[in-house]
Amino acid sequence: TLYLCRKLYNYSLDQRIKHYKEYGKGLTYEEQQNMLPKYKKEHPEYKTVQSQILQDVLRRLDRAYKNFFDKRAKYPKFKDRYHYTSITLPQCEAKRNFGKEGYVYIKNIGHIKIKAHRNFDPTKVKTINIKYHAGKWYINLSIEVEEEKEKTVIREKAI
Predict the structure, then answer these.
(1) pTM, to two decimals
(2) Are 125 and 94 in contact (CB under 8 A)?
(3) Domain ranges of the chain
């Protein structure tokens, strides 16, 4: 899955560069997202990758371009296997992804055993990020938490 996501990222970056050289205008996330079904038909190996994960690859590239144009980063680069090490599942469903206790389920990958370092409510999980780092796999869960009301302390100063 990582290999295919990296391949899509590099293809999409190349596509944006060529489109700009040819037409003087870059492609947008929406335009590239609309091209995904055709790309998946031409490359049947992508049928095993969840569409949300592929859409997130295009979002990452779009974010890299926005950061470049906002002068927060350098121009987006092609990624090798050492520089594309995570995938993100942007939408999560507790019943589907956490139906088996102690495991997280990712479509077309299967059940992945997790060791949670903190207790969490599966219904509050918004995104799942799977990362390969230092020879190990990690799952990062983004969880919605209620915002604590700030306690404002007003100090009165006698003059």
Answers:
(1) 0.83
(2) yes
(3) 2-69, 86-143
